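Board work, copied verbatim: KEOPS complex Pcc1-like subunit
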Amino acid sequence: MARRKCTAEITLPGGPEIAESLEPDNLQTPPWLKITCTHIEGSVACTVEVEECDSPRRILSLRNTIDDLLRSYRAASETLEAARK
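↓ predict structure ↓
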């Protein structure tokens, strides 16, 4: 099988605080998984890349990572909103 790289990108509203809170430390991330989150003009852009995604397990890891990012985004957004009140 050919080696493939799968990429998922999500862009959500938010500031640099949220982007920073979503950026993983990558200490416990497998070498075939790369996650980046950045702040761009009032939005948070996250990219998840999985190398050799011919494996169903790696595609599931991609999906689970996106789910985790969305949960973390929601928690960070709600925390910032509560702090502003």
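The chain has a mean pLDDT of 90.
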